[in-house]
Amino acid sequence: MQEFRRFVKGPMGKVLLVAIILPFVISAFYGYFTGGQQDNAVAEVNGTPINKRTLDARVRQYRQRISEQRPELDSSMLEQFINPSMVLQGLINNQLIYSYAHQASMAVADQQTARRIRSSQTFQNEQGEFSRERFERMVRNAGMNPSSYMDNLRRDILGNQVRAGVQDTAFALPGELATQRRLGEQSRDLRYVVTRPDVLVDSYRVDDERVREYYDNNRDQFMRPPRFQLAWVELSPAHYEDRVNITEEDIRREYEARKQTGSLQPGSAQGRQAAHILLKTGDQRSEQEAMARAMELRERIGQGTSFAQAARRNSEDAATADQGGDLGRVRRGDLPESMADALFALQAGEVSEPVVSDSGVHLIKRAEGDQGGGELPSFAEKRDEMARSLRQGEIQALLSEDASRLDQLAYEHTDLRTPAEKLDLEIRTTDWFTLNNPKGIATNAAVREAMQTPEVREDDQNSELLELGDQRRVVIRMAGRKPEEPRPLSEVADRIRQQIKRERARSELDQRAETVRKALEQGRALDDIAAELALEPRTASDVQRGAREPDAKLVNEAFSMRRPGDGVSGPELVRLADGGLAVVTVTAVTDGDPSGLSEQQQRQALARLGQENGRQSLRSLIAWLRAEGDVNINESKLEEDGDGRQAPAPGAGGPQQRPAMPGQ
Questions:
Q1: How far apart (Å, rounded) are the C-alpha atoms in residues 348 and 302?
Q2: Which of 254, 310, 448, 621 has its CA 20 to 30 A from that of 421?
């Protein structure tokens, strides 16, 4: 959770938040709205429905986008954060913008839409020319026809026209910038008194009888939550370290086998100088289509087209396309097995047949003049590597076999004793813990999830086999439970004593605040109030707006006070965040210097201020459109899947995501 919060507070998180939550107008409208599906609408905006399938697809797209940026983020946290209700607000904003454009009689000519399509690189062939065949194929793959695509593109253009008309045309005047700098960089001199609850708390004494009375009257505040204890057995690679014995004969046989299979072909240790062209597969292109396209490119290369030129125009590997697909010198272990086999079978200058990997379909070229070179690695050179590989393989085989047995034994028996005995495992137990403060193996998310199942938590059954990472496999069961119960007085006495003191301090501070209010109404000065409170006034010079010292709320109040004339401004009473109170006066104000910028700095500052004015204007427009528009949200539909059933848990399924089209 903390990792996710850090991501959201970072620059990428903020960009995605703005893109999702704010107006959505800088993204395309493709496929957002479809008429004739009123019965499946999650919302209706000025008479136009937004259907559930569209919403689900957009939610999946944004989750995937963030997941690709930060794959280490917990998927459950991501699903809670990017939720349908939040994304729906952006879709509503989009439709309000479009309705506004329509009511203003804004329109987009067919010629403008056609020019946008013809100029899109997405629909151009290798010669940089518009391909109608490519256009129609990609539009069909996106679930549309050319007519509906053009309609949606018009919506996109109209939305961006509204955005440009409101946001991009905003500007700031030098007078605004001067005022901003004068106020934003302003500093103030303060004179104040402050008293904190902690000072009073330390002066009180609370006897044991009062503590006992408070405990008896508020026992429900001192309950210990339910506690649990888990038992578990575990399989891991370490369990087999002493059970695997790899002999010299085993290593020699492995060496000879690798020679026979080509794994030790000459030069594999030195690598090959290679380049490739990647054609990705997925929703927009099937593997068969990618293979056909790769064969076509290979044929063109054979007819004289430069491999580097073909890579720059066609490769979808963003990291290498601009360099003509150059991978540099790679060793066999640097590549997926299929690519490595193809590359190390090529002669210098040859181009492979299409090769399939998890990323898509590749054409691979071994560079002209690449000698590779080198003799076959000797047995001595490869011995340690092969010994480790054989050992790991044997351990993995034993682990997999025992994991299957453990899963079956845990299902067949009502305790862990029999599975542990048959597999020579130790039954271990955790300390007592609460759900909010797990300990030991219970800190693992998979264990906590299994612990919450009725079979484990209520029926005292063994869990299913759990995978914890690092090839660890465990089965857990409940070893003990302790229900909610009052904590003993001896455990909470100090806490109660402090609570009583804090309550007394708050009461006394409330009384002091009332005394100060009356003194202020009588026009008494800070020194008189300080004397009555037995406090010594303090000073703070050159305090900046938003400063946290001497206290954030005190500073905020000081900057909301009028400028002093010949004397001082104030005094004013301030209740602090910790319950304390302060009385503050402003003795001097020093404005920021508007003339402290060079001509270039002033232009940059005016541009930034104009951009902020534009964003604020756009936010204000959307707020007005929402207030004036007819927006109805069908909350029940938000909780259903596309077939009208109750929605599955986040990530359990949903409508297929539509491939992104230009502008999305």
A1: 15
A2: 448
Asked if the bond preceding 537 is cis, omega within 30° of 0, the reply is no
What is the Cα–Cα distance from 218 to 398, expressed in whole angstroms? 57
Nearest alpha carbon to residue 87 among 190, 36, 135, 16:
16
What is the SS3 assignment for 250?
Answer: helix
pLDDT in tens, 86-122: 889 988 998 899 889 888 888 888 888 888 888 888 8
| Cα distances (Å, whole numbers) of residue 147 to 67, 98, 114, 136 | 33, 18, 11, 10
Mean pLDDT by 10 residues, the chain (664 residues): 43 43 38 45 89 83 78 71 86 89 86 86 81 82 76 85 86 84 88 91 90 92 91 92 89 83 57 90 87 92 91 89 88 84 88 92 88 68 87 91 93 92 93 89 90 89 90 93 91 92 91 92 92 92 92 93 84 92 94 82 85 89 91 79 42 33 35
- For the four alpha carbons of 286, 291, 294 and 299, in that order, the dihedral sign comes to negative
Domain 265-375 fold is Chitinase A; domain 3 (3.10.50)
Pick the CATH number of 2-169+615-638 from 1.10.4030, 2.60.40, 1.10.530, 3.40.1130: 1.10.4030
Q: Name 575's Cβ contacts closer than 8 Å, sequence gap at least 6.
A: 513, 553, 581
Q: What are phi and psi of 176, to 5 degrees?
A: -65, -45
Q: Which two tokens stand for residue 438?
A: 């797990």
Residue for token pair 């010292």: 549
Q: List b or e across 521-555, with b for residues whose CB sees 16 or more CB atoms inside 10 angstroms.
A: eeeeebeebbeebebebeebeebeeebeebbeebb
Q: What's the Cα-to-Cα distance from 538 to each of 194, 195, 202, 578, 636, rounded to whole Å?
A: 9, 12, 22, 19, 59
366 bridge partner residues = 274
Helix axes 489-521, 208-217, angle to 10 degrees: 100
Residues 6+ apart with CB under 8 A from 638: 42, 84, 85, 88
Q: 15-68 pLDDT, tens per residue?
A: 444 444 443 333 333 333 333 344 578 889 998 898 888 888 788 878 877 877
